Structures are given as C-alpha cells and as structure tokens.
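To: structure desk
From: M.T.
Subject: fold request, one chain
Message: Could you run this one when you get a chance? Sequence is below, nothing fancy, just the single chain.
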Amino acid sequence: MAGDKKSDGGKKPLSGITLIATENTEKNNRATAKQNDSGDFQIAAESLTDKNSHNENSTAAGQTQDAGNNGKGAQQTISPGLAVDTDKLDSKQKKKKIKRATIPLSHDDLSRLNTNKGLISLLRNREIKLKDVLDELKYEDELVRLQIELVKLQRWVAENGKRIAIIFEGRDAAGKGGTIRRFTEHLNPRAMRVVALPKPTDAEKGQWYFQRYSVQLPNPGEIVFFDRSWYNRAVVEPVNGFCSKAEYQRFMQQVPEFEHMLYEDGLILIKFWFSIAKEEQAKRFESRKQNPLKQWKLSPIDEQAQSKWEQYTHYKEEMFSKTHTSYSPWILVKANNKLRARLESIRYVLNHIPYDDKVEGKLRLCPDPNIITRFHRNVIKID
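Reply: Done. Structure tokens follow.
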C-alpha cells in the first residue's frame, strides 16, 4: 500500500486523509484510496456504472473482493455500498469533477493508516457515509460562495456609509452563535462588530432600558450582529422573573416606536428568530454537556428551558403579535437543520440588501421559503 512508502525519498509522512467525492447521479458508489505526491492519503468516492453493478452488489453485501493477480490492490468493504481500492485513479475517474475535504485525524488514527486493514478499520469506526460526505462538501462550497457575497456587501456598506444591525433571537441552543460565526468569518473586523451583552449592571438597571443597546448600534459604514438584543425583555426576562409586569408592558409599548425611529433614520434592521423543536433543543443540550469545548454555553437558564417551554412559547407569540411591523418584520428561520439555517439566513440578508456587484444567476440568493418565512399569524411554527 502507498502508506508503506519510505520518507527518505522526499515524501512527507502521512498527515491526514483527503476525501475526494465525485458528483455523479449513478446509484452505486465506490471509494478509492491512494497516496498523493505530498504523502497525504486520499480516498476517492465515485459512482459506478450499471455494468459494474454486479460487483457493487457483492460489495454492498459486505463481501471482500479480490482484484486478481494483475498487480492491482485488493478491494475491501468499508460499509454497504462503499469499498476501498488501493489503485490510482484510472483515466475515466480523472475526467470526473472531484471535490476534496480533509478529515481531521489524531496521532492514533495516523498510526493505523500504514496498512489497508488499518484504513478500513478507521473508516468503519468513524461510520463515514458517502451521502453525508457529499452533503458536507456541498454545504462548504455553497457557504464559501455566499461568504464572498458578504464581503461584497460589507464593501458596499463601507463605501456608502450604510448602517446595518442584524438581530439573532431564538430559544437557547437554536444555533444563533454558530450562524453569526459563519456571517462574520471572512468580514473585515474593523467594519463589523458582534454584540453579546452580559446581564445589566446596577447602573444600567437604573437607565432607560434601550440605552445600553443604543450605544451599540452601528456607525456609518458598519455592520453589527446582535447575539440576543433588547428583545431579552420580551421573552427571557418575563419567563424567568427578571423584570416586573409594568416594565414588560412598557417595553412592549415602546419597542415599535424605538424601531420606527431607527427606520426613519436610515438604519437597516433585520430581525431573525431561530426556531427549533423541543426534542432538538434537548438533544443539543445533551451534546453540550458531553462536549468540554461547549460546556461554557450551558447556564441555569438553559437548564430550565425545557420545563418552561410553554411559557417561552406564550411570550414569544406575544412578542411577534406586538412587535412585527411592516418597517421591522420578524423573519423566522427553521433551525432544526443547522447547516441549512445558516445558508438560508445568509441568503436572506444578501437578497434583502441592494449592494453593488451582486452575483447574477450563478448563485441562488433567494432564500428557501421552507426554511425562511416572514411572520404572519397563520404561519406553521416548529417551536
């Protein structure tokens, strides 16, 4: 196997797996493994033609196939419909459109790549599925293309002195922070900010409620992303007893007027609500508990989100009915699927704002109506 090459011939040691997935509409799939010139190990996933379906059927049944004594490497089953071939790509394969994505590997993983059996065992343990890989590749490709448009949008904002504020609201673990990261990943940090305010200080509690948010509004040429906003008082605070009934009612009366002043002053305000199902929220909370890199996201409020689900629903609906206006509408994002929610919310912003040099025809900017909807009373909600 190529993984047994010595490093003294100028080749680099194995440093990772590159997954190569061809776009093909045929029914059957195969993965081909080889080592590239840099010493990286590659797996090529391709679709077989109908004339090879007999071999694929035996592969899908979990059988090991022998390529014979013609010098070719052996094919072995990874999972139903997916096999490994140690040969180099043939001429037909080279003509196909190939996409690459790197699978991160640990040192233990790398040590297992020295043999065919080690590679196959690794892929089995990772339970890598071709469809999931292709979906991930498509998502990453689409995301990069949309982020290029976001860079164009930011340039237009800076050149024309525009002010854009984008609010991300939703239940806990709905994917607000992850979506904001995809928005801002390649933007110029000097012309954008992410605002995620902590709980108010004693001094701020004595101020006009909107005061601490007003100072965070964008300057000319700037985009500001609010990871939660003044709408804390519409849902989170009344549910958890952080404000009085009088304070809540005063806010609900003032917020349409506050946003109308922003609108009249030329500020572009976009309000997203990320919706997830109760079961999906519970699943994400459990994932956070198990992941030491995400445990910081858990809070006492999160722990009560499931038991207070109906209370959140009540105040959420009140918020929509009293703060959804023609000049400042609520945009609902169905976020059970994080990847689609990220892409479609970016599309909405790009489609909504008339920036210069907008791509035409080559990239879909109109958001999917199955994911992005403007609030109305009869809209079907998942939370």
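Reply (cont.): The radius of gyration is 26 Å. Let me know if you need anything else for the meeting.
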